[in-house]
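Give me the fold.
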Amino acid sequence: MVNTVEFAKMNGLGNKILVIDMRGRKDLVTPEAAIALAADAETAFDQIMAIHDPKLEGTDAYIDILNCDGTKAQACGNGTRCVVQALASETGRKAFTFQTVAGILNASEHEDGMISVDMGLPRFRWNDIPLAEEFHDTSRIELQIGPIDDPILHSPAAMSMGNPHAVFWVDRDPMTFDLERFGPLLESHPMFPEKANITLAQVISEGALRTRTFERGAGLTLACGSAACAAAVSAARTGRTGRTVEIDVASSPVRIPLKIEWREDNHVVMTGPAEWEWSGTVDPKTGTWQRDVGGEKAAL
């Protein structure tokens, strides 16, 4: 078997993504390769989206998702948009159906280059998220950080968007909180047996939110698509906004908002950009990589 495969360095609103083409192979991108790639400044990433041959009839690919610490992720909305852009450039197609650990995702590229991903149904039951304790109402669970009489963060909404999320509502810019310090404590809190993505969300208007996320397995990230979906759903669920909002991802260098629609059928659809940076080849076992001559290519 040839040791190397093609990959692309991409991003979704600054969320650093490696799209690795594993089609035609039986092996996987190893945790060791992921950790090695994450440690290199040129290939540092938040998630790897490894494209495999489809396992189910009617799907276009199976997507294996890895975090930068080598652990598996169930969902990555920004990464899925990157996969769509890569495959659309390769095939000329505009619509795709992917299988992931979290389920089936339908996605499409629009004429303006924006990409929509149906992220599926949010789950609210405490044991589906999962939480370590039973809560009848997961729109506001008992959890806080800071002094008991004056907590810095408290009473998050909890849900699963294919991966567990906790959304803390704040009344000032999320960038003013020391999330780099609080994030690891909350991500690994005993309340979350599978850890959780931690998001700070501020209501800007009835149709707009501002968010910042400490991502499970990746740390403080420039953007997290599933967290934006969780914040939008939580806002609508608690009457803070309507069911369609624009998300200003506070930490993203790309000043294009994500559009999140929680449809009447309860599916959550996220629309936003993806950007191709450069391409190369990589050994999926070791993470040893080489950049393409010129560094640019239109497709995998």
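Residues 90 and 299 are 5 Å apart (CA to CA).
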